[in-house]
Write a structure and sequence with these properties.
alpha/beta; Rossmann fold; Helicase, Ruva Protein, domain 3; 2 domains; 44% helix
């Protein structure tokens, strides 16, 4: 079953929460999309804040094929196989190759990417949770721009969870979901700016309380504490 966090992936840059320093009129990523011209980039920031989602949107919005690899699990052979498919995408404006955790690729793997980057045959977007100026080889950094993604603010995470509640209600035919405000705030605080973690925890709580033919769902503070195995003690971000 597809996770709720995946179902809620933004369909446009305007739906991306946070990252207002990169997205919006005159901002870097929005300007790239409007011009149709992308640069090789290294996305740098903590997990769960939209790096993969934004990379996918950039490909879609500029009519490029999107291929995603993960340096922690994929090998040099996987990279070469992806690059060998370039000729299949002549009807599009090229290929955006997204490599998650790119700092885990060794020098040889990163070297293979350089020729393709310099020829303009691909747009490379790597992402890393480590400082790329120390974790990624200098030859790659010199051919890309580093784009820093910032941790999501607490209101952004709350906004994302409210979206998730509305989506869950519609998908499951539930008229209303009642959950204490302080419990939602607690879930958001545990995520520490990681939207995926917040929505995954919320989905666990919703699924545990979902019953067949249920029109209204009531989730108590005790329900949240039981699923998250954490005690909520006078938690209220509004004071």
């Amino acid at each position: 079953m597809e996770p709720l966090a995946s179902k809620l992936r933004p369909k446009s840059l305007n739906e991306v929460l946070g990252q207002t320093h990169l997205i919006g009129e005159g901002k870097l990523l929005t300007s790239m999309v409007k011009s149709g011209t992308l640069m090789n980039m290294i996305f740098y920031g903590p997990p769960g804040i939209g790096k993969t989602t934004v990379a996918r949107l950039l490909a879609d919005l500029t009519d490029r094929k999107f291929i995603s690899l993960n340096a922690s699990t994929d090998s040099l052979k996987d990279v070469k196989n992806a690059l060998d498919e370039l000729n299949m995408f002549m009807g599009q404006k090229g290929l955006l190759l997204y490599i998650d955790e790119i700092h885990l690729f060794n020098r040889r793997n990163q070297q293979v990417l350089l020729d393709y980057m310099e020829s303009g045959r691909i747009i490379l977007v790597g992402s890393t949770t480590e400082n790329p100026h120390f974790a990624v080889f200098k030859a790659l950094i010199s051919r890309a721009i580093v784009v820093e993604f910032k941790p999501l603010e607490f209101p952004d995470v709350m906004n994302g969870m409210h979206r998730a509640l509305e989506y869950y209600k519609e998908e499951h035919g539930i008229s209303d979901i009642s959950i204490p405000k302080e419990s939602l705030q607690f879930i958001a605080s545990l995520a520490n700016g990681d939207m995926r973690k917040a929505i995954n925890n919320l989905e666990l709580i919703l699924m545990a309380n979902d019953k067949v033919n249920q029109n209204n769902m009531e989730i108590t503070k005790s329900d949240v504490e039981m699923i998250l195995q954490r005690k909520i003690i006078n938690f209220d971000m509004d004071g």
